[in-house]
Every structure is written in C-alpha cells, then in structure tokens.
Design a protein that fits this description.
The chain has 348 residues and is α/β, with parallel strands linked by helices. 35% of the residues lie in helices and 24% in strands. The protein has 11 helices and 16 strands. Helix 4 links the parallel strand 4 and strand 5. It starts with a helix and ends with a helix. 34% of the residues are buried. The model has no long low-confidence stretch (mean pLDDT 90).
Length: 348
C-alpha cells in the first residue's frame, strides 16, 4: 500500500529536523550483517552468526572456553576478509602465542592493555565511532576496576560501582555502534567476555549454589545476544605404551538471550588444545563432527538404516561418514553452505 501524503510529510519533517536518513521505511533498511563464529553449530544457534552493530556477551565459568570462542571468531573472520581488523581490550594479559595457535593473525589485532574500567569503555566507544575496525573485544569484564574502587583503600566498600559505570557505558555506546538506516556502512562485531560468580544468599532448586554474573542489570537489556559457555567433559586419548593424555574438551553452548534467533538453543563442539593421534592439531575444532550433526539435524544427510547419504555419496555407519568428511574439504564446504542456506531460507 503506498504511503499517504500525511505519512510522507511526517517522514520529511523528521529528516529535516534531525538529518537525512533519520526516519526511513523499514523495507529500505540494509540487512543486519552477521559475523561467523568459526563453528557451524554455533552459527546455526545464532541464526547465521554473531549479529553486527550490537553488543554480545560470552559468559561462563573459568577455563570453560570463553576466550577461545572469541579468538576463533576473530580467526574465522580474518580468513574471510584479509582486511578484517580487531580492537582487543585486554583487561587480562593478551597471550599472542595462544591467539596464533587458534589461527589469529596478530598483525591485524590492536591490543589496548588496561584494567581501568572508565579508560577501557572510553576506548571502546572511540573504536566503535571511528569505523576503523571490524571487531571490538573486551576480555574480560571481571578484571576491570572502576575509578571509584581504585581510589579507595582495601578496607573501604565500593558497592555497585562497576555496575553503575557499565550501565552508563551501554547508554552512551549505542550511538557509537549505530549505523546508517539507508547506506551500508562498515559494520562492527562487539564481544564482551564475562564470568559467572556464586550468588551468595540466592535460592536455587536441588540445593545447588545459584549463579550470577557481575555488571549489573542494565547490561542484560543492552546485550543483543548472551552466550553461555560450559565445559562438559575432557577428551582423553590412549597413548602407545599405556596411559592417557588429555588433548581437548567438549564445550557446550547455550543462548541465554538472542534477539536475532530463537533463545535457549543448545549445541556442543569438540575443541583440541593439544595435538591428537586422530590428526587434530592444537587449537582446532572437530569441524567434521559438527557438520555431520548439523547435516543430519537439518535433513540434508539422509539415514537409511545404517547407511547415510549426501550429495551422491554413501557411507555405511556414521563413523565412516565423519572420517570421509574430514578428508574431503570440498564436501565440508558444500555441506556447510547447504546448512547455512537452509537457515537463511527459514528466516526469509
């Protein structure tokens, strides 16, 4: 239905007062960009990848894989775009050797090392406003210290100082990450790593200690996506001559909040932090097993008894299919593309 004269006049008045492009038809707005996570299972959970121009939280217990998820995201996007540049706020030490092991080109990562909360937030706002980088990562929130806390002695309480500053940051940073409603501007991926804390005095069923995350409640409204990361089990391998060696872990992922896809989605992936006798290299995901799982889940791989079929190929048993997938990179790319095409078709 065409707009009536009164509606067109309203749009013109708003754009005259606040600037061209302040009010547009929703149909004229560019699509929200998505950034791959480097994991097909996680991309599917998020509806195609991390939403751009929005703030996303990676949350979990210590050593669960939070920073690894962030590094693998950066590495994957660097592979897709040779100009992809990251502004990394290192509230904790930045391990460039480990980042390289995970596939990150550290020549395209700007590291700003500080645990001063106000300084970190100011730099992040400047980076978003500049449109000079493609990703902003804060690792991690619990290591930040607000000025109010830093200036007081150890025996002086500073309740909620960080939450107040964080709430102010999210109120201010919105305009910095906002992009044109008409033109396709350089998008930005924004990730903040956070960590669970025990909620002392809180109630939880079955006698379990309830969990909470620092930063106050204002951020919960500001985040577009909140991803929970949990280590569910270790990956151990037998070695010649006896004994076992720990080479990796299984990471469970759950979307606590998602404004771009269905929330409370769950997936798991295998990550190797040491070389494996199965051929996995240190710093790799088991991408083939993810592909097989997603292929079966979305009906692209058809099971006929103990036989599996896809793209003119046929395998007897899932282990043989997974092994064949690991050896055939072209088959991996095709299956990945087919899964993502189905996800995008479902959104259209």
């Amino acid at each position: 239905m065409p707009l009536n004269d009164e509606t067109r006049a309203l749009i013109a008045q708003i754009n005259k007062k606040f600037g061209p492009g302040s009010a547009v038809l929703a149909s004229q707005m560019p699509a929200v960009p998505l950034f791959t996570t480097g994991s097909l299972a996680l991309d599917v959970m998020l509806g195609g990848g991390w939403p751009g121009n929005q703030w996303n939280e990676i949350l979990g217990a210590e050593s669960s894989g939070k920073t690894t998820i962030a590094h693998k995201t950066i590495a994957a996007n660097q592979q897709l775009d040779e100009n992809f540049t990251t502004f990394w706020v290192a509230a904790e030490a930045y391990d460039h050797a480990w980042a390289e092991t995970l596939g990150v080109d550290v020549e395209r990562v700007i590291v700003y090392s500080t645990n001063a909360m106000e300084d970190a937030y100011t730099a992040m706002i400047q980076a978003a406003e500049s449109r000079a980088v493609d990703a902003i990562v804060l690792d991690s929130y619990p290591a930040l210290v607000p000025d109010d806390e830093y200036e007081k002695d150890m025996d002086q309480a500073t309740i909620s100082a960080g939450a107040r500053v964080t709430g102010k940051f999210f109120r201010k940073v919105g305009s910095a990450t906002r992009r044109s409603l008409v033109e396709q501007e350089r998008p930005v991926l924004a990730l903040i790593v956070n960590q669970f804390r025990d909620q002392i005095g809180g109630w939880s069923p079955a006698g379990m200690t309830p969990k909470t995350s620092p930063g106050g409640k204002a951020r919960l409204y500001a985040y577009y996506t909140r991803l929970e990361v949990t280590r569910t089990e270790w990956i151990d391998e037998k070695r010649p001559g006896g004994g076992k060696t720990r080479v990796g872990q299984v990471i469970k992922l759950k979307t606590l909040k998602s404004k771009s896809a269905a929330p409370q989605q769950v997936a798991s992936l295998k990550f190797y932090f040491a070389d494996s006798v199965q051929g996995f290299r240190k710093g790799e995901y088991d991408s083939a097993s993810q592909l097989v799982t997603m292929g079966i889940l979305h009906g692209l791989i058809v099971a006929d008894g103990s036989w599996y079929k896809y793209g003119g190929h046929r395998w007897h048993g899932e282990p043989k299919m997974t092994a064949a997938m690991r050896e055939n990179l072209d088959l991996q790319e095709q299956l990945s593309a087919d899964v993502m095409a189905q996800i995008h078709d479902g959104d259209s």
